[in-house]
Design a protein that fits this description.
The protein is an alpha/beta fold and 319 residues long. It contains 5 helices and 14 strands.
């Protein structure tokens, strides 16, 4: 079995320069104070389902990932309760099974959705990554690496085209990213620390290329796949030698895991702004792409907290 991508949607708040660090100011999309993960996620998920031609009653699984607090928490300093149950209630998806994958890559989320859908009568899953943590997460003063706020949602269903994911470690001596709660001298509660430089970007690229080679071997001569990759390194985006979908990230801003739905929304959705949340992605309605060829799409991820890359294929009708 495998998965077909039916639709994608993404939205981001305005770019904010948060601090002057090594190499210049840190720039990232930053949610306004008081904005919780569900507030931003609800409209994006509704748009993704609408583009997929689905309603909430069609959804058999809601899977959320990310580290932000949900709308039920009264303060952004509380990381929890998790997002999936409040989102199910807000969408009125009463028949959906829900759970959360804390800070997992898209490939792990897709694998989990595929396994679940194989054992249920419902064939549609909604995957969402929502972050609204910038106000409580300080940038790394050493290299300026930090998390970006925003929302991305994917709608997928089962197919008969088989797929198997690849997970590989990054061969590096650098420590993994970590979140330090209440570090000494920190103005905020949490600091994101990650030793990012050009050497690490090269090591990540090498692991990505190895993962891609394994996936291309699995696909054989059946297709000429497109690639969408998580972009964690502003200014050091890996050039992978194949046709890579771009999410139009602003200069020197890394969207991290959110770069995947941003790029996919640009090719599968439409240009518009969800109410109350400034969106940037260039998007085209899925129904306008039905004449396009269904192609294999390789989704490539990097997990900075585990120093691991991942890759798997899905079917998609691409522009």
């Amino acid at each position: 079995m495998g998965l077909e991508l039916l639709a994608a949607a993404a939205a981001f708040p305005e770019i904010d320069e948060v601090a002057c660090m090594r190499g210049g100011p840190v720039r990232r999309p930053a949610a306004p104070p008081g904005r919780m993960a569900l507030d931003a996620a609800l409209g994006v998920c509704q748009r993704a389902l609408e583009r997929a031609g689905c309603c909430a009653a069609d959804v058999g699984l809601i899977l959320s990932k990310g580290v932000s607090p949900s709308h039920v928490a009264l303060t952004a300093d509380i990381v929890g309760p998790r997002l999936a149950h409040p989102l199910q209630h807000a969408l009125r998806a009463q028949q959906a099974f829900v759970f959360d994958l804390l800070d997992s890559p898209w490939v792990a989320a897709l694998d989990t959705a595929e396994v679940f859908l194989q054992d249920t009568s419902r064939q549609v899953a909604l995957l969402v990554h929502s972050e609204s943590s910038a106000a409580s997460v300080e940038a790394d003063p050493g290299c300026g690496f930090s998390l970006s706020d925003g929302v991305g949602a994917l709608v997928v269903r089962l197919t008969q085209v088989p797929a198997r994911a690849t997970f590989l470690p990054v061969r590096t001596n650098k420590p993994a990213a970590r979140l330090l709660v209440n570090p000494p001298g920190a103005a905020r509660r949490t600091r994101m620390v990650f030793d990012v430089d050009a050497a690490l970007a090269l090591e990540v690229r090498a692991a990505m290329q190895e993962a891609l080679a394994q996936q291309l071997e699995q696909l054989g001569q059946r297709s000429s796949p497109l690639i969408v990759a998580e972009q964690w390194f502003a200014g050091h985006a890996p050039e992978l030698g194949l046709s890579t979908l771009r999410g139009a990230e602003p200069a020197q801003v890394s969207l991290g895991a959110l770069s995947v739905p941003a790029a996919l929304a640009r090719h599968l959705g439409q240009r518009e702004k969800p109410p109350g949340y400034g969106a940037r992605p260039a998007e085209t309605p899925l129904h306008a792409l039905l004449h396009e060829e269904r192609r294999q799409l390789l989704i490539l991820g990097f997990d900075p907290f585990r120093l691991q890359v991942s890759c798997r294929s899905v079917l998609a009708s691409m522009s």
